[in-house]
Amino acid sequence: MSKTKPAFMRRVIAVGLCAAIGLGVVTAGQAVSAPKASAATYYNTKIKYGVNLRVSASAGSGVIRMIGKGESVHVVGQANSYWLHVFDQKGNSGYISSSSEYTNYVGGGSSGGGTAPSAGGGGSAKADQVIAIAKSYMGRVSYDYGTRNPSKLIFDCSAFTQFVFAKIGVDLKWGTKSQKTAGSFVSRSNLAKGDLVFFDTIGSNNGVINHVGIYMGNGQVIHDTPSVDGLLISSINSGFWSTHYVTARRVL
After folding, report:
1. 210 with 18: CB under 8 angstroms?
2. Residue span of the signal peptide, if any (predicted)?
3. What is the H or E stretch that residue 11 is in?
């Protein structure tokens, strides 16, 4: 490895970058080009009558857009008996009325005609929602250290986890320093979908946390990282992320 690093990498190491990934870290075994959410998302719930897509499960919350009659959406789950959490085909995440007046949705579970929960996870509706939301931003989010810009979808690692969990009503503080003490400790052998997973990415793993991602089940974590300037799905069972794992917290 060259002793002279690019200016970007020198900055990364100097500031303890959220996901400082050195030369040679992204190996052939890692999913550098992870599949976009659309590859496994089924927009098979049809809108029967124009309905507002809202920011939260409340008639008083902001309107993202009107979803017109004939459009299809992907139902992630039911926030309650009155609201469905959905993704529209423009990539927006929000809530619509669960009334049969508006859609042909007939499910009662959290999958809503979408992908089945991953094996090895907690299986809760909120965990499935967190993962679905995170995956919906594949290819759309950019990475920048010390940045939290939801309007332009530019985040560092902990800003992205904060952004995702806020969409289901879980309040996380910005920064791995705060998130590493949120919720409760969970051992590596008991990881469940939706857990926050923390890493030490600078040099050898001495347990100094500087990066965070969201556990998806099946040994996979989704995280915002400078190595691909955006979201990456990586394995924690082998390769770099396996050896740089530090701890996990359960916040759901």
Report:
1. yes
2. 1-28
3. helix 7-14
Q: Are 186 and 252 in contact (CB under 8 A)?
A: no
Strand-pair partners of 232:
223
Q: Are 98 and 86 in contact (CB under 8 A)?
A: no
The active-site residue out of 18, 74, 85, 223 is 223
DSSP conformational letter for 39: G
User: Does residue 17 sit in the same domain as residue 134?
Assistant: yes
Structural domains of the chain, count: 2
d(CA 208, CA 93): 34
**Residue 223 and residue 133 share a domain:** yes
Q: What is the pLDDT of residues 165-174, one digit of tens each?
A: 999 889 999 9
Which residue type, as a one-letter code, is found at position 75?
V
Task: Say whether both 125 and 203 belong to one domain.
Answer: yes
Does one domain contain both 176 and 209?
yes
In this structure, are residues 50 and 68 in contact, taking their beta carbons and an 8 Å threshold? Answer: yes
User: Looking at residue 231, which CATH number applies to its domain?
Assistant: 3.90.1720.10
Matching residue, tokens 């009659």: 69
Regarding whether 164 and 233 lie in a shared domain, the answer is yes
From the list 74, 85, 211, 244, the catalytic residue is 211
Q: Is 74 helix (H, G, I), strand (E, B) or coil?
A: strand
Active site annotation includes 74: no
Average pLDDT along the chain: 78
Q: CA-CA distance, 5 to 9, in Å (whole number)?
A: 6
pLDDT in tens, 108-161: 433 333 333 333 334 478 899 999 999 999 999 999 999 999 999 999 999 999
Q: Which of 18, 74, 85, 157 is catalytic?
A: 157
16 and 62 belong to one structural domain: no
User: Residue 189 sits in which domain range?
Assistant: 7-37+118-250
pLDDT at 30 over 90: no
